[in-house]
Amino acid sequence: MDFSLTKSHELAQRLFREFSINEVKxxxxxxxxxxxxxxxxxxxxxxxxxxGIPFPKEYGGQGADILTYAMAVEELSKVxxxxxxxxxxxxxxxxxxxxxxxxxxxxxxxxxxxxxGEHVGAFGLTEPNAGTDAGAQQTVAExxxxxxxxxxxxxFITNAxxxxxxxxxxxxxxxxxxxxxxxxxLEKGMPGFTIGKHELKMGIRGSSTCELIFENVxxxxxxxxxxxxxxxxxxxxxxDGGRIGIAAQALGIAQGAIDEAVHYVKDRRQFGxxxxxxQNTQFQLADMQTKVEAARxxxxxxAFLKENKLPxxxxxxxxxxxxxxxxxxxxxxAVQLFGGYGYTREYPVERMMRDAKITEIYEGTSxxxxxxxxxxxxx
Amino acid sequence: xxxxxxxxxVPDTTEVRIDQKTGTLMREGIPSIINPDDKSGIEAxxxxxxxxxxxxxxxxMGPEQAELALVEGLAMGADRAILLSDRxxxxxxxxxxxxALAYAIKKIDYDLILCGRQAIDGDTAQVGPQIAxxxxxxxxxxxxxxxxxxxxxxxxxxxxxxxxxxxxxxxCMITVLxxxxxxxxxxxxxxxxxxxxxxxxxxxxxxxxxxxxxxxLKASPTKVKKVETKGAKTAGKVFEVDAxxxxxxxxxxxxxxFVI
Lengths: 379, 260
Hints:
Chain A has about 375 residues and is α+β, with helices and mostly antiparallel strands. Chain A has helices at about 5-35, 40-45, 65-80, 80-100, 105-115, 230-265, 280-305, 315-340, 340-345, 350-360, 365-379; strands at about 120-125, 140-145, 145-160, 165-170, 180-185, 195-200, 210-220, 225, 270, 275.
């Protein structure tokens, strides 16, 4: 058992840190306040390989591993939760299913541009009446001679407003339940495919979360991802991987809040001394960092398992459950350490607290993670 | 076109603190970085590479851990990296270092040698120009712009309040200022390639056909007599007073110090 990072991982981590501090941190507050998707950051991330980390070079990827990808999301999220989820949804929810379930033509067609960041990816499973109950899909893909005719609506889709490529779940057999669900690759601009309402959110406000509307969209037969009727399984496996990304995002947000708090308590003076000299501050920080370190081990372990093709869905669920709850707790405590200043938008901890909340909700709520974990215990 | 960039690994002095008791640098836990001017040298070479398909070789003399600086340069986009490392070089001053680098450079094909102006730890700005002298090459230092011509470069050399436009024939040596460019980041995939493929070549004194008597501490004409730090300044006092009272206070303090 070896807990040390390789030299490559250490240097990659330094790259992500330098990039996050120089390119992402300076605009994080503006991206939040103006609810602006940071296109310029995506373009830069593409240039340095951050949009295609865990995929082979033959598809334009970086040939690195899942851990490196998780560390990238972690470092970005330390300074900007929005940027973290842009990379996570793009990589885990769009490029990964094409890489894992796509055929050779689909991989060659879509992965190089996704991996270079020229294209942004998104994933559509959630519907107004199919949230945690994801099997209750109402979007329909009717098979015609040379295409599927897609009709329906998806909501809360991350990256939707800027994405070029979408992985979409739809019913190809209404009577077969979850076995009637199939996965499709859709492209922006297909006739009948429009982007609906842009959601106004509590946190990760720069990420583009929108509704997708399909009105008689003709999807070519070759855009079926995997086999017909296997879409639900593809969606669930995709979300297993996605949870590593969101857990890494939660981990980063939490660590980012601690880093801000450590800096602040050394500066802030009350009763004639820095508040870091009070034992309450010290004990709070100790608890916060210990929990974040525990979350980090869970996230890195899940990444290790996936990389080594070992079963990892329970570990990914544990990592996401724990990291997201730690993120909520730690960011809340960070705001408390800042006192009144923490509640103002002059300091980033209030943004981090707002950003943390979503990690307990999307890509499976904490309750869904508990269902996954307990199901493996009680089977 | 073939370019050699000489780089040095240095402690990140922006993070170095001084031990108030001993007056020495507290180096422990301080990250090592590519010397900033040298990093701009790498970037300048990579810009030429993109424009003219140049081949870029990085050369560094230093201990084993300097591998990291070379890997970083490879991950930015350089094609080849050589670490010149041997006990025989230990204690070399700028003369002995530049001579060893010149011996190494004789083993490599090149049209242009790029160096950073100076290192943030020694601040001598000597190694680049000395390499050029050892190799009997034309040189231009303090450069902020490089334009390739047929068999020459047109460069901009800056001084404090004026600049010169100079044409220099190849092969030549140019030292660049940090201001010449904004170095790019590494790319993720190149980091893994650089380590996985063991891309950094190791050269010892035997690989450069150099007499050990010519380098190292004994061959270094610079003799360090004493190292001392300037006394650390204590925090100043802040007076919040009006202009008249301020003037009075300043006069009083200057008299106290016998300045007036």
